Automatic annotation (TrEMBL), chains A, D:
One of its GO terms (molecular function) is glycerone kinase activity. The gene is dhaL. The lineage of its organism: Bacteria, Bacillati, Actinomycetota, Actinomycetes, Streptosporangiales. One of its GO terms (biological process) is glycerol catabolic process. It comes from the Bacteria. This is Dihydroxyacetone kinase subunit L.
UniProtKB/TrEMBL annotation, chains B, C:
Keywords: Transferase. GO terms for cellular component: membrane. Homodimer. The dihydroxyacetone kinase complex is composed of a homodimer of DhaM, a homodimer of DhaK and the subunit DhaL. Pfam families: EIIA-man. InterPro entries: DhaM, DhaM_N, PTS_EIIA_man-typ, PTS_EIIA_man-typ_sf. PROSITE patterns: PTS_EIIA_TYPE_4. It comes from the Bacteria. This is phosphoenolpyruvate--glycerone phosphotransferase. The keyword Hydrolase does not apply.
Length: 208, 124, 124, 208
């Protein structure tokens, strides 16, 4: 997977976020402050402009610029979190111009570690970690088992979507939703839902 | 629903905290900000605070959340056991917790207990 | 003197808390309010926060005081052990304590410890 | 002591507060928010208007109206505190039209009890209680010992002034000054200083 592939991924995320913006914001209205969709839409729009203004030459540079832009422009908690995720993945890729499935999987692991370190959320706390962690695990297993790239990315996307759905019965223990206590039960976590979009976009980029 | 009054020296601080709590806790909670003196200065106006208590009192009790100093003393003047009670809690964090609990239909004691939990939340 | 940055979702909340803390803690403490997004909405702007850190940094260290949610995460991005540290404290009460300690010439650790004492103050 | 006497007391306080306003505010600048003098000046000005608008017929009614007006108009912590003090003294006087020295002393005790109940400050916490408590004790002893009224009020005023001066080395443990911790040491408490003015005014009213 080369720089073009990762640029396509970011484009796919941007379209998915735009299309899903109102849904994400509705999810956030239930247990947050009704801005997750607009936050990410603003962030990825800025990413598109930043990538167009100074197109990076490697997958790593592209993801680091994506992350830095998200940190600066999202405005909500998801900004530092997604920003750190993309930056850590980009840093894991180093100067490489071509990324193998194993490297991609290690990059997703780095993203997960970064999100965990920054937000101190564990699985089950009803955050994006509940989608990101199963996606990272599924990708890692698929690569170990020698699945084809598209199959591996399909597995990751399926795991992320399942993880997001599984946040519905959970009680939030991190972020502002945690102030809601038991009232957070019964709603899908918006950040987990957007993480499912991010992995859906990865699969879409692979089948372009 | 239990009513909540935020009492601060600063009109702006009470109003901004109310806006944040309302955004997290839902719009339907009877919540009033009573900050500053009548002429807009820093201080507390008991008249403003008692008007705020009346405004948010739906018959299920009212929780007063003061910031510091004169806000606490003004709140104490209006205490009325079982009906108007003071929450000795961190101002912003306690307000958010109280508003969320009130919005969830908690009783006066329940809102007070929720507000007091704010002493035990850690942020990191 | 140790610098202090108040980080909130709400520009108004950060500014009003800074004004209150300054009034109690003295005017000479390097103190900045970094609240709201760049376009004035509710949220946090890392650019604003890092500009605020630079503004108050006199070389003796900077304490970041976040309110909740994205403020905490933004603060974490800027942590730098021994130089820029986060105080996990009640927002208003911790800000007042920190500003007072900084104004009294406390070290970075001293300001942090003073801010943390705000968890133990009772108001009644 | 009749209604006229207590009206004269309030007038003497009003003049003393006006004359001492900037000094009280300077004391408050050191360990508070530099408004104690203006707070009390505003409050007693409003008291003068309230008493003129509906002159009360008994010492008790006069002091209750004074207290109620202070509560509404002062704006700082001293409003509820002084307001409670005057209200409690007024309530202790009941419907009486003439107050004996013993009744005055009991009234000051009631004021002290009210301030303590409202503010939960003990002696030594560097508040107005540090002036009010010794004044109440000195007045009580003077009356017990059968001193002449002017001597008894002189003793109370001296004790209040001594109590106020004795707050200088204390560390504040109540009110907003308590946030200053050790930085509050070395300054006279503004509320204790104004309490000394209040008892000085009582002595002055007696020698009119
Ligand atoms: N400490 C945390 N760790 C992991 N994820 C978090 C944390 N705090 C919040 N989140 C994620 O961020 C999402 C909210 O993002 P967003 O609405 O953009 O930010 P905000 O809550 O500041 O408005 C939540 O649904 C959750 O998935
Ligand atoms: N809890 C309390 N108990 C007794 N006296 C108090 C208390 N809190 C404050 N005070 C008194 O009030 C004085 C300050 O009054 P003022 O400056 O008018 O109010 P504020 O502190 O609200 O600006 C202090 O000097 C102190 O004597
Ligand atoms: Mg949100
Ligand atoms: Mg938000
Ligand atoms: Mg004052
Ligand atoms: Mg004041």
């Amino acid at each position: 997977m080369n720089t073009e592939f990762f640029a396509a991924w970011i484009e796919e995320i941007t379209s998915a976020v735009r299309a899903g913006r109102d849904h994400l914001t509705e999810l956030d209205a239930a247990i947050g402050d009704a801005d997750h969709g607009t936050n990410l839409d603003r962030g990825f729009t800025a990413v598109g402009e930043a990538l167009a203004a100074a197109p990076p030459g490697t997958p790593g540079a592209l993801l680091v610029l994506t992350g830095t832009t998200l940190i600066r422009k999202v405005g909500g908690a998801s900004g530092p979190l997604y920003g750190t995720a993309f930056r850590e993945m980009g840093k894991a890729f180093g100067e490489a111009t071509e990324i193998s499935p194993a490297e991609l999987s290690a990059g997703v692991d780095a993203a997960l570690a970064g999100v965990r370190r920054l937000g101190s959320a564990a699985e089950g706390d009803k955050t994006m970690v509940d989608a990101l962690a199963p996606a990272a695990a599924a990708l890692s297993r698929a690569v170990r088992d020698g699945l084809k790239p598209e199959e591996a990315l399909e597995a990751a996307a399926t795991a992320a979507a399942g993880g997001a759905r599984a946040t519905v019965p959970l009680q939030a223990r991190k972020g502002r939703a945690s102030y809601l206590g038991p009232r957070s039960v019964g709603h899908e976590d918006p950040g987990a839902a957007s993480t499912a979009l991010v992995f859906g976009a990865l699969r879409a980029a692979a089948s372009r | 629903m239990v009513g909540i009054v935020l009492i601060s020296h600063s009109g702006g601080l009470a109003a901004e905290t109310a806006a944040l709590a309302r955004q997290i806790g839902g719009a339907k909670v009877p919540l009033a900000a009573a900050g500053g003196t009548e002429d807009g200065g820093l201080g507390t106006s008991p008249d403003r605070v008692s008007a705020a208590v009346e405004e948010v009192d739906q018959g299920d009790g009212v929780v007063l959340i003061p910031d510091l100093g004169s806000s606490v003393l003004t709140a104490r003047l209006l205490e009325s056991p079982g009906r108007v009670v003071i929450a000795d809690v961190p101002f912003v964090e306690g307000a958010v917790s109280a508003v969320v609990a009130a919005g969830g239909g908690a009783s006066l004691d329940g809102v007070l207990a929720a507000a007091e939990e704010a002493w035990h939340f850690r942020k990191l």
